[in-house]
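Input for the complex:
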Amino acid sequence: MSTLSTYPRPAVAVDLAILTVTGAGGADPELRILVQHRSDPDGIALPGAFLRERTTVAQTADMVLESKVRIAPDVTAGPRLLRLFDDPARDDRTWAVSAAHSLPLHEADLAGARGELVPVTADGQLEGVDKLLFDHAAIVAAAIADVRERYEIRQRYAGVGPDPDHFLPEPFTLHQLRRVHEAVLSEELHKDNFARRMKPHVEPVYDDDGEVLLSTALRGRPAALYRRAQ
Amino acid sequence: MSTLSTYPRPAVAVDLAILTVTGAGGADPELRILVQHRSDPDGIALPGAFLRERTTVAQTADMVLESKVRIAPDVTAGPRLLRLFDDPARDDRTWAVSAAHSLPLHEADLAGARGELVPVTADGQLEGVDKLLFDHAAIVAAAIADVRERYEIRQRYAGVGPDPDHFLPEPFTLHQLRRVHEAVLSEELHKDNFARRMKPHVEPVYDDDGEVLLSTALRGRPAALYRRAQ
DNA sequence: GGAATAGTGTCTTTCAGACACTATCTG
DNA sequence: CAGATAGTGTCTGAAAGACACTATTCC
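Predicted:
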């Protein structure tokens, strides 16, 4: 402890698995992850950066978004730590530890982002991406498992309520909400059971006359609009 | 990236919330956490150390156990990452990031350990400990929440089977197993429901004659002995 | 037999899964 | 009205919670 500063220190990378649901509210929402092409080691990778002098993980994540992804999102929830990668040989260039995070963002915040939003397959792979650099494939797998766990709608023992990462803008119909959960889980849900489970966690949106706002349906009966409770 | 080595790097600490259940198998098992007295900044703290040149978290944890706790445990499961503490001002001495881990160990492995095993209260505090150094109180709270979640026995949606951290040596009776879970959760469980949930995850232990081994009861009917299934 | 502990049968409640029906819109 | 989508009533089965009973040991 007394010789604290004399020992070599690792570079600490913050790698981000940026998740979004594209087309939320529309016909075919899809869970996607942002990957970028790198040339330093040549290949596909997640965006990331090293912690600079006296900065935090959150600040570093902001810096990555700004300078590498070129977006300025309205971050609702901060990056979620998934795991540490600490194999001393994982990066040829230097001793580097990676703190792997997931970062769920609105699709709207990703407009103009550098990189590509790649759809996630049912078994947790990235569609059409063979290989990611470093241990980024493991980060992607962990991020998908993490978000799917949180979108489980077994209210009693799991689940954190409707669309915890706010992929879907308010107000929304129960149908739209279900489509988003289905996109994340890659699993079909029964509309009746889904509605019963979600009802306690959403509230209807009213207009000036105290009437429940309805969606303007293209066909069929218009659906009631809701927002997250409280 | 090209100037990788020119930037200052943080010291990376591995702090360990070492958990055990004392008296597992006995009358009054208790969930406890190891704390140590420090004089550098004076106070009570969790054991920990900084990552040294090209070592891993696991190696650093082993080093902490050897040189600071003075034990050589038979580690069943590695340290579990709880969270990162990255406030640049959290340590006066230098820029240090802490990777907070929990490490569940057998009570037997902690014989002769430096420090004190402090009981955990029902609300997740340490009994009789006012204040911990740095952010170690938050680490303790996270470690307790983590182990309690894993000892929940709602098999369908949570739970990782009987006594996932192996606090209780085999073979054991269902009564002993339940007492250990109760000690971790700080909550009483019904013996009948507990037995039904655990039965699929344990198997009886047989003697040479193919008879089910029984505990030698002090009073009452002897209980069957089990071990974890498979 | 009595005390003590082990182990099981079963009733009730809750809730997910599934099916079918009714309701309300457009053209 | 037909077609389409929204929303609900209700049956079933699985499992947790709770209670009570039976079983086996030592004294």
